[in-house]
Design goal:
The chain is mainly beta. It contains one helix and 32 strands.
């Protein structure tokens, strides 16, 4: 893709800036998205030194659209307020974080409180799970730790959850572990929880429960993805409703999302080239959306608010967009070609998130790179005296959060 400014011929004045939305935003990817803001603070340490290994691990808009949350390799959760977009800038502006929360260890998963509204501070919070740590509930205004939910094993040691989610009512926290999930009442921090067995010996899917999604249609169902490549749909009491994905994904499930009507489920996996859309009435895949995601890292996808578009990043830094309107009726899985592609980063796009109210798209990038050791330049006559080495990263390094106008 050519330079984004050139692709719009610098006609910023001709683009209507986002305003308070009275209806769902209508995204348009027929032309390249326009870059408005960029956050590159992930590549600089507190002392101003350049760092190459602090790649991002996704980005998620708050339910009310007032801010976005990121996770990165430095075990930090950063919150960025939505910028002032009364007019679109001629050049990308710096996007600085308003909050930076350091977790105790590697962050496995994170999610917003589903009823979050910045006008009600009590609801402005998010959940994290990190290696060697309890599940934490954080205040999105102050960064203070509000509560801890403490999973323990049979020898009374804290065990970290691999995945976390809060049900649409905002009452229950569901956390995924190996062969089980734990369910916490969000109003009761501590150790008390309900344990739901998910092992294969109990007729469940088993494995490490790596992602969790809730049916938003009002039915109390949840989908659990496992690193054993399976997906199960359960009641909130743990009763198995259906099981799918066996033999379709080639890697462990890393992301799942219901459609708004609860009839379909989208799933993606690590080291896998496809996103599948499942018909939950038949438990069979309807559509296959191919992407280049041959990495063990989680690569998120997202649906726009009208659910007419599906988008996902790729390891080459590009964005794929699929048009979901008018898809053919099918009895066998049907491959769907992307309707548009845009080169948005120079490194893997691991996170994509549609703004819930405006025609804005956020993307996050970066991945683990293998450092190479290259000999430094030596001005000495003696080839051994004063010789030095420099760490050089293999492949392009781009660890950034970007905001795009796509209207």
């Amino acid at each position: 893709m050519s330079d984004l400014t050139d692709s719009l011929d610098l006609e910023c004045a001709s683009i209507s800036p986002p305003a308070a939305a009275a209806s769902a935003p209508v995204f348009d990817f027929q032309r390249a998205p326009y870059l408005t803001h960029i956050a590159e603070e992930f590549s600089v340490d507190p002392k101003g030194n350049i760092v190459h290994d602090n790649y991002l691990k996704g980005c998620k808009w708050a339910p009310d659209g007032t801010c976005i949350l990121t996770n990165s390799a430095d075990s930090s959760l950063r919150l960025f307020n939505v910028p002032d977009l009364n007019s679109l800038p001629a050049e990308p502006r710096v996007w600085a974080s308003a909050l930076n929360i350091k977790e105790v260890d590697l962050v496995y998963d994170y999610c917003w409180y589903p009823k979050m509204s910045s006008s009600d501070q009590a609801t402005s919070c998010f959940l994290t799970t990190a290696r060697t740590a309890p599940i934490h509930l954080w205040d999105a205004f102050s960064g203070a730790l509000r509560a801890s939910y403490i999973p323990k094993n049979s020898v009374d040691a804290v065990v970290a959850a691999n995945s976390v989610a809060i049900d649409p009512s905002g009452v229950l926290i569901v956390a995924g572990f190996t062969n089980c999930v734990r369910v916490y009442d969000i109003s009761r921090p501590g150790e008390d929880c309900d344990l739901l067995e998910m092992s294969t010996k109990n007729g469940r899917q088993g494995g490490i429960i790596s992602c969790i999604a809730f049916d938003p249609s009002g039915v109390d169902l949840m989908a659990l993805g496992s690193y054993n490549r399976s997906v199960g749909v359960y009641s909130l009491d743990g009763d198995l409703v259906s099981r799918m994905a066996d033999g379709h994904h080639t890697g462990g499930i890393t992301h799942a999302r219901f459609s708004a009507d609860g009839r379909r489920l989208f799933t993606g996996a690590r080291s896998d080239s496809s996103i599948f859309c499942w018909d939950l009435r038949t438990n069979k895949p309807l559509y296959q959306f191919r992407r280049n995601a041959s990495t063990n890292q989680r690569v998120y996808f997202d649906l726009d608010p009208t659910e007419t578009l599906l988008c996902s990043g790729q390891i080459d830094g590009s964005l794929l967009v699929w048009n979901l309107s008018g898809l053919p009726a099918t009895e066998a899985v049907h491959p769907i070609e992307a309707s548009s592609t845009a080169q948005l980063h120079t490194d893997m796009v691991n996170g994509v998130s549609f703004h819930p109210l405006w025609t804005m798209l956020a993307t996050s990038s970066g991945q683990r790179h293998v450092p190479l050791i290259a000999a430094g330049v030596n001005d000495s006559d003696d080839e051994t005296e004063g010789a030095s080495t420099t760490a050089v990263m293999k492949g392009a390094v781009d660890s950034s959060l970007k905001l795009w106008y796509a209207g």
